[in-house]
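thought: fold this chain, then report.
action: predict
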Amino acid sequence: MVGNDVVDLEEAKRTSNWERPRYLEKLFTSKELQFIHDCKNPFLMVWRLWSMKEAAYKLYTQQNPSRFYNPKSFECDISNLNGIVKFKDFECNVKTQITSRYIISEARFLDSEMTSKIIELKGNLPKSHSDILKEALLIQLSKSHQLSKENFKFQKSEFGIPTVLCNSVKIQVSISHHGYFGAYVI
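observation:
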């Protein structure tokens, strides 16, 4: 099982209002607010923590199919580019990559190899971004399994949790897109 989240930093600068009063207190624990307060670039820390929470949420909902909004309950602890996110009795490892253009976080239970890719998306239609991302994912699976792309079918559960079906075997995946960046992880 895997979870991921990508944040387009230019899009976040343009559309978010994270500095408004009491906004951060609704999303982050006191420990996380201290990380934001203590760092050199609070903007990057806010979006890093957010992407970690989102990636962990996606992993959690694969294990516990449901849909809910409670970001403050997912608490992040960070060390360099690695982190741990906890929610109730759930705990996962999260690796984050920060570039000048995006932040990507990937959540997992074990430190195992995963296939992941960042895709720069063109245009501004989220539906087409989603389709481009799904197509890239299916092409990757086709290559890695040495099967025709037609053997793979992207599907979402009633809770919006994505999987790919191949010969009645479910492959756990996670996809994310924001602004002009998309990402998948297998």
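thought: worth noting. The longest strand covers residues 90-98.
final: tokens above.
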